[in-house]
Amino acid sequence: MIPGMSDTAEQGEGRTGPESDDERRARQRERRIGAHRSARRVLARSGHQRTLRERLDLLERAADVYDLDELSDLYGGGVVEALEEKVAGLLGKEAAVFFPTGTMAQQVALRCWAGRTGNPTVALHALAHPEVHERNAFSQVSGLRPVRVTSEPRMPTAAEVRDLDEPFGALMLELPLRDAGHLLPSWEELTEVVEAAREREAVVHFDGARLWEATVHLGRPLDEIADLADSVYVSFYKSLGGYGGAVLAGPRALTEEARAWRHRYGGTVYQQFPTVLSALVGLERELPRLPDYVRHARVVAAALREGFAAAGVPWARVHPEVPHTNEFQVWLPYDAETATEAAVRQTEETGTELFGRPWGTPGPGLAVTEISVRAESLEWTPDDVKAAVTDFVARVTGADGL
């Protein structure tokens, strides 16, 4: 994930001491979200930047996707079961089970596979979500032993899987690999990696938190992609705009065991209908639109490259150059603090938000952020993007004195 922002601290009125890092980050985030909410034009609006009232509006569409006169769910069943069946069908899997979080879903899936293979070792990328963002949950909570196939900022190769110098029971592939730039392999590369795992007598699990938008790059429908794996996890809030929640799909025997472990992990929640209804709405409303977002992300990325070149930026990188999904990275030769300040000021002063996410510092004199292309982005033409880039660069170079 992109490192957090680090704006220059400002002294608040009446302060008796320097501002702490936590206070500075909280202030920066509040300012950035305030600018985002007041902006007239943005590339994407995400759920965590909306008010509770605005988020509740999502359920106004619930009657279009489910019979609201049915009884509510109770520790599963009802609307929860309907979501499970729908996702199992979309992914072409025998069965599916709902989880409150993807972290829980994947721990359960892989410990279930470990029991079947007799090997608790999970091969995965060094940038995979469990390795970077879950506080060593595999080893600390689930008795699993992660081993890294590669640390390179790209997808693992079939040769690396085939030549890994110790046995493993499961290969976990994050599709797309978010922290490397939302990267996907080609369809041929993916099938070769899966075949290499099979040669090692390992099962294959897809971390498909954002698998929904992988169909354009891979050139295959969801069920054909999911068919390569023994089990698949998908998320409902990252791409589909739901309140949260996840589903683990695979063989019925696996999902039934996963229900038992879900209970043990505290994930069999009394009622989940708001989250589940929001997921059903997302599947109905957003899933069909994701291919359009991916295709337009390529338009936005090309305009960004052209805009930075025209503005005289000595070096700029859109990564990947042709986005694999509707999200990608932008790297610039500026200090992250300066880039952050320019981005927020542009939003505050023009009402146009080009860069709404934090800027991180991957190295001295470098700044990197993520771009997400969603429904709001479809209104942006290439000329709109280039004009916003010109304005942004003017603010950055003015602040840097370049």
TrEMBL record:
Residues 12-25 have a biased composition (Basic and acidic residues). One of its GO terms (biological process) is L-threonine catabolic process. Its cofactor is pyridoxal 5'-phosphate. Coiled coil: none annotated. Belongs to the threonine aldolase family. Signal peptide: none annotated. This is L-allo-threonine aldolase. Residues 1-46 are annotated as: Disordered. Residues 26-46 have a biased composition (Basic residues). GO terms for molecular function: L-allo-threonine aldolase activity. The keyword Hydrolase does not apply. Keywords: Pyridoxal phosphate. One of its GO terms (cellular component) is cytosol.
